[in-house]
Design brief:
24% strand; six-stranded antiparallel β-sheet; alpha+beta
Length: 119
């Protein structure tokens, strides 16, 4: 695993520990990066372009105002993601602030799961 991905993984693990839920975080290889699941729901995509968190539309606009934040573009020529926002490096290094992003992502994943009708 590239050193950059390892560093991002450690920062995300630190945020989960800060929330008191280190065992809720899982990683799976995906498209040359890692997909992070928190509470069994996808919450972040770790790529060579950065760590992108899956956020609710209501949480995205404020986060996009931060320097270094942007919508994830999964591959050259692809449309920007509607859900995944690249987290600025400074936020990733601030465990308490980064944990807030993880909590927002987890809350969105939980509410999105409950909102789906059962088949």
């Amino acid at each position: 695993m590239p050193t950059l991905l390892e560093a991002m993984r450690r920062e995300l693990e630190d945020a989960a520990v800060h929330l008191g839920k280190p065992h809720d975080l899982r990683f799976k290889p995906m498209f040359g990066g890692l997909m992070a699941h928190f509470g069994e729901q996808p919450c972040a995509w770790l790529t060579v372009d950065g760590l992108a968190m899956k956020l609710a539309p209501a949480d995205q606009q404020a986060r996009l105002q931060l320097d270094g934040a942007a919508r994830l573009i999964a591959k050259p020529g692809a449309a920007p993601s509607r859900h995944y926002i690249i987290v600025p490096a400074a936020v990733c290094r601030d465990t308490a602030q980064f944990a807030g992003w993880l909590a927002k992502s987890a809350a969105h994943a939980t509410s999105a799961t409950r909102a789906r009708p059962r088949r």
